[in-house]
Amino acid sequence: MDPEKTRDNLKKSLPGRILLWLMSLLYLAAIAFRKLFYAAGLIKKHRLPVPVICFGNITTGGTGKTSTVVSAARALAAAGRKPAILIRGYKRVAPPGKVTVMARGRDFNPQEAGDEALMLYRMLEPDGVPVLVSCDRLASGLVAVRELGADILLMDDGFQHFALERDADILLINSSAPFLADSVLPLGNLREPVSAVRRASAVILSHCEQAAEETLKTLRGEIRRLNPAAEIFESNHVPEFFLNPVTAKTVPLSALKNRPASVISAIGDPASFEASLTALKLDLKQIWRYPDHHIFTPTELNSARQAAQDLPIITTYKDFVRFPADWQELLPGGILILSVKITFRGDGWNKLMKLISEVKARA
To answer: How far is 192 from 304, CA to CA, in rounded Å?
Structure first.
């Protein structure tokens, strides 16, 4: 069952809203006690011998976090550093605590990685950046340093992972979905209260192309109020081209302008993805949304193909890696993947990379 639909149904009635509110209170209490235990030393924190940079968020849904991690890893590798990515691997199939290493010369089971980690590795393999998957970030970090020679570690997600000390926390906030008046889970979409912004070393406002200037101004003001020391950067999601995975050739964005199309996705922020396509002047005739990290079945793809008929079907990189192995037989008309790049406003990218490059591991 889709958690979003369940919550929406509960919100339609007063008893349902009260239940969600009570569950949010319990969630808040659990967060508070967990932080207290770490602060008091009742739960031990661990430190790694190289700088650890965390890219995270305080909301559910997409913020462009993974794309930003990829860009940072590529820039570090190009500059002669040896970055490695640490990721939990949502919905992976592996024994608890096992470290799955995706690196050149290493064999691994894709199912033990999870869709997001596998996508990361495929994107970063040409750059020689390894991706290590485990819920135990200390264990995966030690493997990255001792066995792979990593000199800087990038955590994809983990703002709420207090077991591993970080040397910088970079918080991403989707500016098209302001969080200031939101509630914590499950009533709202916050993983923790807004006050958590105070822990950030820097804040990236993403999807700025979809937000009004007044909205951005309000966000900047509230972030500065909560955390005057944090640098604030702004980024846009800019479509590059469509990729045909059958031919591995790119298709210009203009090729689908003013044409009808269908879209299928299972990501945290499908609205932003669909808005990007609409902005490209595509006429979206059918839209299929599935829960985040959903693994597509042959039946679902076959149904999408029949409904779309001869219309092109568009998806994301993240979704494509979760297609079944026989997707080409199920989609004889093919599929297109929207490639999106992250661009920073002003001198934001250079300042962000300067911040990351100059971080030193704390003793």
So the answer is: 37
Contact 65, 159 (CB under 8 A): no
The answer to whether the beta carbons of residues 53 and 155 sit under 8 Å apart is yes
Of 159, 164, 154, the residue nearest 132 (C-alpha): 154
Overall number of domains in the chain? 3
Q: Strand ranges (DSSP E) for 67-130?
A: 83-87, 100-102
316 C-beta neighbours (distance < 10 Å), count: 21
- The rounded distance, in Å, linking the Cα atoms of 150 and 12 is 50
**Cα 145 to chain centroid, rounded:** 24
Residue 24 lies in a domain: yes
One-letter identity of residue 131: V
Contact indicator for 20, 186 with CB cutoff of 8 Å: yes
What is the residue-wise DSSP string for 249-263? EEE-GGGGTT-EEEE
Instruction: Give a yes or no: residue 115 inside a domain.
Output: yes
Rounded CA-CA distance 134/94 in Å is: 9
3-state secondary structure of 108: coil
- In this prediction the pTM is 0.89
Do 34 and 70 share a domain, yes or no? no
Same domain, 242 and 216: no
- How do residues 72-83 score in pLDDT, each as one tens digit? 999 999 999 999
Q: What is the pLDDT of residues 123-135, one digit of tens each?
A: 899 999 999 999 9
Provide the domain limits for residue 127. Answer: 52-237+343-357
* Same-domain status, 203 and 68: yes
